[in-house]
Amino acid sequence: MATPFSSDLGSAPVPLRHPWQHCVGSCHAITALRADWQSQLARAHRELGVRHVRFHGMLDDAMGTVICQDERYLYSFLNLDRIHDFLLGIGMRPIVELSFMPWSMASGGETVFRYRGNITPPRHLDDWTALCTRLATHWCERYGVDEVSQWPIEVWNEPNLTAFWSGGQAGYFELYRRTWEAIKAVSPRLQVGGPVTAQNAWLPEFDAFAREHGCEPDFISTHYYPTDAFGQIGADTETQLAHAPPGVMRDHAESARAIAGRRPLYYTEWNITSNPRDPLHDGAFCAALAIRLAMTVDDVVDAMAWWTFSDIFEENYLPSVPFHGGFGLLSLHDVAKPVYRGFELLRRLGPQAWAVEGRHDTLSAWVGAADDRGADAVIVNVALPQHAIASEDVELRLRLPPGRRAAAAFVSRIDESHANPRAAWQAMGEPEYPSATQVAALQVASVVVPEPWPLAEEDGLVKIALALPPNAVAGVRVEWRS
């Protein structure tokens, strides 16, 4: 028996905010100077509507931001300017992450990642604040305060993890306070926030510290992945996800919202797993789960930055295998993965949504409209690993607005048989270095093709029947006429 999902398009809709469009993550700053990185980001902005990008390492020595020569600091913002000029040129902005410690200012030699980002506090906080002052002043002079005030500025990255910060909580809070003071002295309109922690950590303590010391953040930012805190450290993703409750992302978002209050709440990293080499990232399961998780927090958070928009990502090393389980929405060769296509379908819901009636353990549905020529629905059939799931029949029932009659229906599918470039690559024999012809074929295999679909209509009630295999996504478009 088919599971019904019903929506009355003549009723009052509610806003659909799409916080996943606010920002995407990226590998460290130096990769933003690559032509292929820039091409892929421009595509994600154009096709998905993402507005900001965030990356580590803008202060790393590879960027040449500051060095010490003859016991004197030399500053160069040329590479940063090229990145920001590019972003503004395509209609995007950065979420600024102030990291990692320039080696000339560092108090120690502890590092993270292959590119050796220095994770130690500055030897002298005055040197660090002088750098922050110069940066903020330069940006305001070059781009104007009106523009730079729209760049959220985060202080560091995940300081609660010793892999990213060796200075402890007290050391981070002092770094934040001094950074806040330096940047606000340039212009109080500039947005400074934190604590940029992993796993929702330190939020109450950070908020209390900021209130006590008069450096209250303009926004609260943190990170959360659904695999956080579930299963043993190092356990496989399936085991970790199997322990995650369905509302894991919303539960944590609501606890963070209680602290953020009216201030913007930014999750500047998330994905279905924090494993940088996980096959789940490349398949339809990722698309279905990402949609469901994103929609559970749509009304709670202001940004959900998918980590990352591209597999051009070299924290451990830059791989050459086209499908290697990377974080990216796009592959090394600019092939859209199923999760990219899933966000494309989600974008079609537009800025408003109607209530949907219907319940099922693995099925979820949402209905919205991006224009006045029709309505769109997104339906997913997904369950966390080790939970029961099967193919499911669905009947979508849409009560059209008064005076409208259905003209046509189309269904776009993402599953093992549709929009699955990894399967096409495997059928090629899994070439590590695909030719231009093979890449073109993978591009074709990644496309979501709207299929004309039968519908039944009676007295303004449209019924559409379809089947969703396990871990699948379907986008339904109903076009109408007066």
Classify the helix fraction into a percent range.
Answer: 25-40%
Given helix and strand content, the structural type is: alpha/beta
Q: Return the domain count.
A: 2
Q: Over the alpha carbons, how many angstroms does the gyration radius reach? A: 23 Å
The count of β-strands is: 23
Give the strand content. Answer: 15-25%
Q: What is the overall number of helices?
A: 12
Give the termini distance in whole angstroms: 33 Å
- Biggest sheet architecture: 8 strands, parallel
TL;DR?
By secondary structure, the chain is an alpha/beta fold.
Model description:
The protein has 482 residues and is of the alpha/beta class. It has two domains: 3-13 and 352-481, Immunoglobulin-like, CATH 2.60.40.1500; 18-347, Glycosidases (TIM Barrel), CATH 3.20.20. Helices cover 28% and strands 23% of the residues. The protein has an eight-stranded parallel β-sheet, with helices on one face. The protein has a seven-stranded antiparallel β-sheet with strand order 2-15-16-17-23-19-20. Helix 3 packs parallel to helix 5 (168-186) and helix 11 (421-427) crosses helix 12. The chain is globular, with a radius of gyration of 23 Å. It starts with a strand and ends with a strand.
